[in-house]
Amino acid sequence: MLPGAAAIAVIMLASGCTPEPGPDDWTLEPIPFRNSSAGSGPEAVPAGDPIDVSYGMHVLSDDGAGGFWTASSGSWLHVGADGETLARFNAESGELSHISAMAPLSATELVVLQGDRLHVMPMLSVLDTTTMTMRDLPGDAVGDEGDFDYGDFEFGDVAVHDGDAIVVRYQPRPPDEYLDYEVLRVDLDSGARTLLHSGPVELDDAWGARPGIPPIGIDVDAAGQVYLATPSARIVLAADGTELSREPQVAERPFVAVTPDGTALWSGGPPEQTDVQGVIVGGSSEARGAIERRQPCPATSSGDSLRLGDATGEHPLPFLCGANAASWTGSSWVVAIGGEGDGVLVRLTPPSGS
Hints:
- It is built from 2 helices and 27 strands.
- By secondary structure, it is mostly beta strands.
- The strands form 7 sheets. A 5-stranded mixed beta sheet has the order 22-1-27-26-25.
- The longest helix has 13 residues, at 4-16.
């Protein structure tokens, strides 16, 4: 992590000598942000000089206005559409410190999943980002549906469509099965729930996630189609839950981020041969190095690779292997890579000729 003015100098220097992407090239641009703050808690004001290498971020959402939010172990960051750091603070305890997923309900509200069962029981809530206060929705009590109903045992991921939350929820299935996952549509006013889809989670799925539950990513396009990234498949559902397509995969940290027209950025499975090119634009030498180490994806890589799914099929992408999370922000994806000391937020822009 480069401090202060030195970071800016390196970013500017690198930006001035990087190649220009061609019309068929993807652009990968490290995103600088202010990682310090004056004050404490949600009232803190972003401070300090921008950096573009920091900690690894795993919870990422667009903000409904062209920017994005991240939350990681109580560390919150909000970057606006113009690249300005709008919020940066640490929530050391309380409901803001255990956020596992989020999605925009509006430009001032996020639907968030709280809880990790070790510290906070699972909860679906609406966060007012102007006051950073929560409105919790009614939960599902254990045993409502019989002896083997575990209520809101655990949530996986969340998306929003037409004012409703689309949520992944897990249910244990003793004594013979491991887990099922459920896709629920939740009314954010009443809390009423509709089951759209369910499927099994196997005991040997996503060993790297242990002792946590195997992750399942979810997103929704403008038409209401639901995109599911599970450890064993990439699935597309109609708005009513009817399965439209399924492609097998083996993934440790699957996720999906979808544009309004249904173009999907998937993460999952080993790398495949491709002629696609990615060009790194700008950034410090440290940020560029973190991206370069994940481009191209080595054939022996144990990390999940990216692929683009659109109306013409699926297209493997040879960069940002093992990414943590991604979100579409209106004209590009923001992709989080790395961990402590080499975490980078990358603006991933499709080819201008596509």
